[in-house]
Amino acid sequence: MILSTIEMHTGGEPTRIIVDGWPAFEAPTILGKRREAREKFDHLRRGLMLEPRGHDGMYGALLVEPDHREADLAVLFMHNEGYSTMCGHATIALARWAVESGRVKRQPDGTIVRLQCPCGLVVAHVASDGFVRFESVPSFAYALDRIAPTATWGPVTVDIAYGGAFYAVLEAASIGLDLRRSPMRTIADAGEEIARAAAPAIPIEHPDEPDLAFLYGTILTDGGDGSDKPSRNVCVFAGRQIDRSPTGSGVSARMALQLARGQARIGEQRRFESCTGAVFTGRALREAEVVGSRKAVTVEVGGRAHFIGESRFRLDPDDPLREGFSLNLAP
Q: Does 126 share its domain with 145?
């Protein structure tokens, strides 16, 4: 079996776009395809995301047939541990690829790309210089000042917010960490422990789709709001995986929290920085339809992705490691 990919990165975070070789899906809907990928084709995810073809920090985007009538293309997001519901850095990469490849016809004043994600339709605008802005799905603050009982730090106070995926958000200094000085391994361990503690302590429900109702990761921040200078954050997800980008769905979640706390208003823009120094913009565009009983906001996220290569990966049937391996994850 041969799988063909386009390799890109956004702020250092990889996006391996799988363009050919994946078996056909039977499920008609994107969430059905996500379940089918997990149940029938997970060996292919592992083979492309893990060593020797990938690594524990790899991220993938599988192109699938859309079932949304307005979508130009549809995608399933994947990583070392499974399948996520939304990914901002990959959306930025996919939108640029769609225009550069001719999948969506380039327009002189900027090109609109409509991408169906598991969480819903995401509309991106690709400028002539390749900079991408996208409107994410309605984002909202789910719970404020909730307690996650950890073994290392005792009771930790977190906010839970949704930006296409649910995150536990807290200031790094509240547990004695510094996002510029603390070792990344320590930050990753903290993010993983807090997510594991918060998930059972703060039950999550999504009012529209049960498949979206899970805590995806932890976002540790520097405590800034991104108004005068970029606010650094580190997103930890999928078993200690660190997002090298500022995390697009995390930017949406942070903007929703700022509006809920009165720290930002509709129309205001903020800047958010990753561990590599990459910066995403976040702007609260407008109030969105209420999600369940919670006020929601439409956030526009902006960033830049770059092409780094093309690959053809072979999965030989006699290769004992064809389905990949990880030295950091349990088999």
A: no
Select from 245, 66, 68, 112 the least CA-distant residue to 76: 66
Show the beta-strand stretches assigned E in the chain. Answer: 2-10, 13-20, 59-64, 73-79, 83-84, 111-117, 120-126, 132-135, 140-150, 154-162, 166-171, 215-221, 231-237, 241-242, 269-273, 279-291, 294-303, 305-314
151 in the same domain as 49: no
Residues 18 and 109 in one domain: yes
Domain that holds residue 98: 2-131+307-314
Enter the pTM of the model: 0.90
Give the residue numbers annotated as catalytic, written as ranges.
Answer: 87
pLDDT over threshold 70, residue 330: no
* Residue 76 in domain: yes
Model pLDDT for residues 45-100, shown as the tens digit of each residue: 999 999 999 998 999 999 999 999 999 999 999 999 999 989 999 999 999 999 99
